[in-house]
Amino acid sequence: MAEITREKLLDVYTRTMKVNRTDEKFRELLMQGKVAVMYYCVRGQELVSAAAMAALEDDDYVVCTYRGQGEQTAKGIPMEKWWGECLGKATGTCKGKGGTMHITDPDTGIMVTTGVVGSGIPIANGLGMASQNNGDGRVTLVSFGDGAANIGGFHEAMNMAQLYKLPVVFLCQNNRYGEHTAYADHTDSVDIHSRAAGYGMKGIKVDGNDVNAVYPAMEEAVEHARSGKGPVLVEAMCYRMMGHFFGSDFSYMPPEHLAEMAAEDPLPKLRKVMLERQFTESELDAIVDGINAEIDAAVQHALDAPLPDTDEIYKDVLEETA
Amino acid sequence: MAEITMTQALNLAIDEAMAEDDGVFCLGEDVAAKQGGGVFKITSGLSEKYGENRIRATPISETAIIGAAIGAALAGQRPIAEIMLMNFVGVCMDQIVNHAAKLRFMSGGQTPCPIVIRTTTGVGVGFGGQHSDMLEAWFAHVAGIHVVTPSNAADARGLMRSAIDANDPVIFIENILCYGLTSEDPGPGYRVPLGKAAVAKEGTDISLITYGRTVLDALEVAGDLEKEGISVEVIDLRTIAPYDEETVLASVRKTGRAITLHEAVRPFGTGAEIAANIQEKCWDSLKAPVRRIGGTFSAVPFATHLEQAWIPQKSDLAEQIKASVGKA
């Protein structure tokens, strides 16, 4: 596998830090009581999302889940619109009617964010089917967790995608927990990617904490799907370093698991790779400073933004009510 | 003009929509030529004409079928998904209710979901408890969906074109027993607007509000009662939700009496919603309580005499009309 170019590495780093700083800021606002909404932390999974989004073209489609902050910000949703939606403001991507679990921004290809575990997987096939029908060359990437691999729609969608050779990448972020249940307590098979073989599909397992592994794997999967060879199931091994949602108890995570997670934290590992590839500390810090400033401005914009008009509850129900 | 069956009407409507718009495509179990063009032949001849990408025969995977239809719609296409029999919607309710119906609203209007979900059902053909139910009330209870059912071939042609045109999800219910009904062909391009009821028969004594196959029963009973001096107005809703309140209320204000009739079970049915609305809005015009007639509150039975006893009876309909107008 060829070495990642410095340009692409910088791209992945920038996206990773955008996801991480957004996550940190969100938790800070929740801790301070400035915001009180449902938020599903992505700490530990920043790199997987960033690498996946960096492997896509701008007009490729993405379907994600309530734990989709990583895909959404790394794909490039404008920060003001993203924060506006999370704070339930009229300036949000969905005018405050979707919220943290239903961020939608077709301009950047974020087509659906589902709040139902696994439900985005069959929808991704349809986006891929449209691309196959009209030959637009787009790839659709759908992100989900290990828990979603046990819902019926996963099986139906895998079989259908392979049958039609749809240009879809199924990205399973195996973060070792389905809601509050550890992997070994919800699944007996040792991994998810090997299920691909059962559908005749290409499957890839990759270390989601190592940029030199995960980015090339995502690039390979996207290229495979785009070339017409059919879908790919990628299982990116990572850790959900916090509870299921912000504020939820995660004392059920055993200490040895927490120690393992800390040792595998993708952020220090990524910084080490960046330094090895001759990026300087000050260059990397400047990128993070820029992101922090952008986030702070976006948060302030969202805090100051107007609430949606109450009559929005009657709008967008059907076209007649648009 | 030639006569066409409802089967032909639906096939013609889909065919002409596919010819006019490359974005229209069908997906469902057994729909292509290799599988015989659909179990009820609605898509017969279309895969030969438009290819297997636009008439996609799918695995038996209702969730994947509706999910795929939703995704394609978000990308600008106009899928027509077939759920072979209406009871099978139970398999894919999450996709219909949590996604298709809500994506327009939850995205603040950015991602409308123009899909048609064709499905078939009907009591009276011996299919038993899991292939016969009318489940329109499940969908009528969800904001963001149109629910449509034709009672004749001409309406089937016109409603199908309007359903495909619509920029929102449409549940299109076909009754097995109506496929062979014939109408004069309304011709290419014909459309029946969604949300518009038809006055199937004018009358002055009582309004009978129904849709789908029971329109036939209503017209038969209304014809018989005409001879006894009772003038029944029959409203064919055609679109069950959101329904044509204006036509229904105008009729009840004229007649002062109303009965709702559907094949679906009576409790919590669409008839209950319509009856409640009439009583709220036409109280001063009402001369009698609004009555509701529906299928028996049990699973649809198999044995022919049981199944026939399960269906709303024409004799009961006649008796209730007479009781309502005070001629029992």
Features of this protein?
heterodimer; A: alpha/beta; six-stranded parallel β-sheet; two-stranded antiparallel ribbon; 8 strands; 46% helix; B: 328 residues; 21% strand
Task: Give an overview of the whole structure.
- The complex is a heterodimer of chains A (322) and B (328).
- In chain A, 46% of the residues lie in helices and 12% in strands.
- Chain A has 12 helices and 8 strands.
- Chain A has 322 residues and is α/β, with parallel strands linked by helices.
- In chain A, strands 2-1-3-4-8-7 form a 6-stranded parallel sheet, with helices on both faces.
- Chain A starts with 5 loop residues before the first helix and ends in an 18-residue tail after the last helix.
- Chain A has helices at residues 6-31, 46-54, 69-75, 79-86, 120-134, 152-164, 183-186, 195-198, 211-226, 255-264, 266-276, 281-304, and strands spanning 61-65, 110-114, 140-145, 168-174, 177-178, 181-182, 202-207, 232-237.
- Chain B has 328 residues and is of the alpha/beta class.
- Chain B is 36% helix and 21% strand.
- In chain B, helix 1 runs parallel beside helix 7 (153-165) and helix 8 crosses helix 12 (314-325).
- The relative contact order of chain B is 0.12.
- At the A-B interface, strand 2, helix 5 and helix 6 of A face helix 3, helix 4 and helix 5 of B.
